[in-house]
Amino acid sequence: MEWGMANRMHRMFQPVSGNSVMVAVDHGYFMGPTRRLENARATIAPLLPYADALGVTRGILRHAVDPAATTPILLRVSGAVTVLKEDLSDEEVVTSMEDALRLNVSAVALSVFVGAPHEHESLLHLSQLVDAGEECGMPVMSITAVGKELEKRDARYLALACRVSAELGARMVKTYYCENFEKVIEGCPVPIVCAGGPKLDTEKAAFELAYGAIQAGAHGLDMGRNIWQSDHPVAMLKALRFIVHEKATVKEALNVLEEEKKAPPVAAKRAASA
Ligand code: 5RP
Question: pTM for the whole thing?
Answer without folding.
Answer: 0.95
